[in-house]
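dumping the sequnces here before i forget
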Amino acid sequence: MSTPEPLLNDLAALYTDTTGRLDLLRERLAAAARDRDLLDIAYRTTDTPVGTLLLAATRQGLVRVAFDSEGEDAVLQSLADALSPRILRSGSQLDPVVHQLDEYFDGRRRTFDLALDWSLTRGFRSAVLHQLPNIGYGTTASYAAVAGLAGSPKAMRAVGTACATNPLPVVIPCHRVVRSDGTMGGYRGGPEAKRALLDMEAAA
Amino acid sequence: MSDKQPFDAVVARHGPTVLRVCRALLSAADADDAWSETFLSAMKAYPDLPADANVEAWLVTIAHRKALDVIRATARRPSPVADIADSPAQERADARDLDLADALSRLPDKQRHAVTYHYLAGFPYDTIAEVLGGTAAAARRAAADGIANLRRSYRGATPTKEHA
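..and the predicted 3d for all of it:
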């Protein structure tokens, strides 16, 4: 055994060139898992003017929109912990979401018409987020105004927290919630993304 | 609630090894099916898998069972057509790989399994014993016998540089 053993090297290399095949098998696996009702969460990514967005959906609907800065692995792990580890990448199931996002970022869509799964938010935060679609495209509302809409006019801080933890940013327009003095306030996708969304809506 | 990795990460990490094992035991088309059935079964059971389980050994154990199911089903068919050398996935492989794949496919089952799990999947013999049943020593012997057989058949089919 002083020289490398060609047979063992060849065995170690046998059937290693499977990358393309695996991509196909993984897409097929997601479809089969959906058919057998084993797939709890499907996800994919899509490129937008505010960076790559991760989209995740349950059987109920879109459950999570995440910015690149949140980290794909961290977002998927948080979904596994909070909902289910039965998660697979799957292109087709989220095609309608990608389509509507494309239209939105092209300035051709002002509201989203998508099935949503709200299970990552509850209580007052959920009540706040449910109010946000009432803030029209291209307009903004203050944290105080949203607190009033959600039935607790003094709960501005809680509104801030609800927006900061919005599981469905862009689709649920927390970017339209700004400070009473007109400055932007924070954003899950970073202040540049919030600015870009508001500028885009103002220009459309 | 779970402390488990997303299943997608399990597929990404272990998918290649499971496919290699399936390819070594089955024709290419059957290997695709066995790979899919392996991960579908695994996905079903995944939430209940103990946190400290050896995930790769668990997956390969499932794959081994699925492969045996396919082999049994093929054997029951009146005119078996599974010919490893003609399978589509191997069209890209070079002749040397074909020779080796062919030589591997002709080994007795125990030797082929032990060689596959040790030299292709990289498992230690005690893990192989868990997959196959039996002891680590028996798995080691089967792999050694398999390698000795391959040395004869594979070298015989592939001229070394001095002869070429």
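The interface with chain A takes residues 1-9, 11-12, 15-16, 19-20, 23-24, 32, 35-36, 39-40, 43-44, 46-47, 89, 92-93, 96-97, 100-101, 104, 115, 119-120, 122, 147, 150-151, 154-155 of chain B (CB under 8 Å).
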